[in-house]
Amino acid sequence: MSNLKDKPCVTVIGGGMITETQLLPTLLHMQREGVLGEIHVCDARVDRLAELQRSPLLARAFPGQSFVPHPDPGATSPGTVAPDIFKEELARAPRGSIVVNATPDQLHYSVILEAISNDLHVCTVKPLVLKYSQAEQIARMALERGLVVGVEYHKRFDYRALMARQKYRAGLLGEFRLGQAQMIEPYYYRDSNFQNWCTCENTDMFTYVGCHYVDLVAFITGLRPVAVSVYGIRDKYPNGREGFLWTDGRVIWENGASLSVVDAIGYPSAAAGGNAQGLTMWCQGTKDATLLVHSDQYRGVKCHYEASRRQPGEKLYEEPNPDYFQMVDCGGGGLTPVGYGHRSAEYIIKACCRAAAMNSLAQRQDFIRQLDREGIMATPANSSHNELVIEAGRKSILSGGREVLIEYGAQPTVRFREYN
Fold it and tell me: What is the largest CA-CA distance in the chain?
């Protein structure tokens, strides 16, 4: 690796599951490739940082590499919780460097604002924020300062999604009419840190993962959503807290099309796949129907393992997803991240690096506008319809599933549908 001091520094806020399994491997790989400099990881829970440092997969994949933890488990008492430490670290980060936000949904707004206030480019996990006005504020502030903000909707970088976008916009799939999507996450998630933040007052499964397919339909078709209704079932976690762990959403689009989105933490823990997910779009051509089906939970791979080599709780029969994110041996020592999860994060980080290398504010602003126009990477300006859907969805689910309209204009708003 080249001198790390000469490359853009990255500060990750949040050391949870997505950091360990997708974001940090991508960053360490980019560091190994000479693209990035020092990597800092900040989490309120020092014990979580200690777990990351001991990760056998990261040690196997990136021998000789590491990250700088904040707080440092070696100098901090176990069990320490430091909720505001991210503010200190963002204030210390070099101006123009990069922040990766991997915090729970309800914390995104404060973390991203803190990053922008410190003149830092941002890659954030989805959703961007929970309200449209917050997305607009972020878009305005980031453009004024010439800062890239990319939202990591990784399904956009699945080659099948890019193919579908190209075919739909060429007219080959006709006009979207009806859609069905699902993302059912493993039941064992209920035993994880989800039970501390994915609760009724903060978010829900439609907001957390259903947003992927709402974004994907807009990405493929270019249509705007105009109405949302979400019904949620309250269920209890092992710690007694309540979450909307089963949700059924419906999104109406500007051409009258309807998308049904079912989400839950309800996939059997011992089942073969990592989860159950997929999208079907029924469309209308000039003389016949057209169809697009993405069966995302099964990618054509089946494995049954040698029992003596599996650890307790590990599956013997498995249908792994080779396309989202895997670490594979491509030679050269260590492991190489591959898949659309890697491509998505890498794309955003490289966009941040390009902007960081531009000395002129005007150049950076032109580049941001280019990213907005291209629409491949989700930005606050080109994907704020997602925040309108989320804001409407939260309004609906907290009212028992009542339909909420999205009204576009000089200042888009959401409001309950009124019936005579």
Answer: 70
